[in-house]
Amino acid sequence: MADLPRKKSPRAPSVPLGEAIDRALRAYDKQRLQPAPIDAVAQNLGYKGSSSGSALSAMASLRYYGLLERPQDGLLAVTKDVEAFKFAPNDELRRSFLLGFLRRPALFAELLEKYASGLPSDASLKYDLIQRGFLPATASDVANVFRRSAEFSRFFERGGTDSSVGLMSPEVVGEPEAKPLVASMPEVSVIDALVHTALPPAAAQPPEDAGHDRIPVRLSGSRRAWLSIPTPFFAADKQRLKAQIDLLLADDED
Fold first, then answer.
1. Contact, 58 vs 47, CB < 8 A?
2. Cα dihedral sign, 58-185-203-213
3. What is the per-residue pLDDT across 121-180, written as a single tens digit (0 to 9) for each?
4. Which of 8, 143, 154, 224 has its CA 20 to 30 A from that of 19?
5. How far apart are CA 225 and CA 45, in angstroms?
6. How far apart are the first and last CA of the chain?
């Protein structure tokens, strides 16, 4: 019997909001609002570079919260809301920004609306996430990140459940236009993706590359992507590849 395809959990922040803001402020102190290459941004966030899965996951999380944005392919920039948060003249305004960051991930916004009167037990929250498509192990991690983020922003204190509080500007909240995955993908040692638009059925595959397996992926509009996977392909390679794709799609619509 053929193995069933492995299920993938929905996208969600993997870093609590408090840590995400600390890293965003660290990056702001070094690059202000200027766009920078992904590797440089990773270093500004406190990582050695963008080659690790943890750095890529963190950058994806910051984009979910609206702390980083992608002004163009291959570049990331700290958002203006981070600057506004940093220089907010009082705690009330800073908390308003915190609530906006917390609501930015679609999943978190849905959970906050559902549990507006208070969060359930860890077991109940994990069960809810599993029903939403998360793998059990991932559901535990996401539940922890969500709970810590809500506590950090003091969401359940007076005013936190008011949906009019903490809403960021439309430029930040609005989803940017989705871009083709491969067109925005920087070079990664574990993947060499080639997109062919409107390929006829008998179109030839990309040239063979010794030591790599070519895996076709069908896309909409008669397009096709080719994944070039090296041999051997380690578990760490898979995690980094997944983190890279999550970073690229962090603010694209599902």
1. yes
2. negative
3. 999 999 999 999 999 999 999 999 999 999 999 999 876 666 554 444 433 333 333 333
4. 8
5. 32
6. 31
Residue 40: both structure tokens together: 């440089």
Return all residues near 210 (Cβ < 8 A) that are at least 6 apart.
Answer: none
- β-strand 68-72 against 75-78: which pairing, if any? antiparallel
CB-side exposure of 65: number of CA atoms within 13 Å? Answer: 34
Q: Say how far residue 139 (Cα) sits from the centre of its chain.
A: 16
Cα gap 184→186, rounded to integer Å:
6
Name the residue type at position 134: F
Burial status of residue 128 (CB atoms within 10 A of its CB: 0-12, 13-18, 19 or more) = middle
Residue 213 forms beta bridges with which residues?
229
Q: Token pair of 194, please?
A: 């080639």
